[in-house]
Amino acid sequence: MENSKEIKEFINERKSLFWYIPENEKENINQETLVEFILNFGNDKDVKRLFELVGLTNVSKIFQSQIKLSRNNYFKPVRHYFNLYFNKYVH
């Protein structure tokens, strides 16, 4: 699935966060990768914009499915914080 214009712009404005993804593939990363990188490496404004673009509930669903995997790439403090955050604000 191709990303919307707004999501492509969001990614392009934060290219440095996606350092290992080839330039010509960054705009069309999947939402799972987008969520993981923004929650791990983004700042508070990046996270807020991610919630606006993807939706708080959708970000929560993606995050929850990712942390259930035996191997996930979230930093421990990030995983802990957003687990608490989504448990409080997403019903």
Layout of secondary structure:
Blueprint: H1 5-12, H2 31-41, H3 44-54, H4 56-67, H5 76-89
List keywords for this structure.
single chain, 91 residues, mainly alpha, 62% helix, globular
What does this structure look like?
This protein has one domain (5-89). It is 62% helix and 0% strand. The chain has five helices and no strands. Helix 3 crosses helix 4 (56-67).
Beta-strand content: under 5%
Count of individual beta strands: 0
Number of helices: 5
Please, what is the average pLDDT?
95
Outline the biggest β-sheet.
Answer: none
Structural class by SSE content: mainly alpha
Count of separate structural domains: 1
* Helical percentage: 55-70%
Low-confidence parts lasting 5 or more residues at pLDDT below 50? none
Q: State the end-to-end CA separation.
A: 27 Å
Give the topology string: H per helix, E per strand.
HHHHH
Q: What's the gyration radius in Å?
A: 13 Å
Shape type = globular
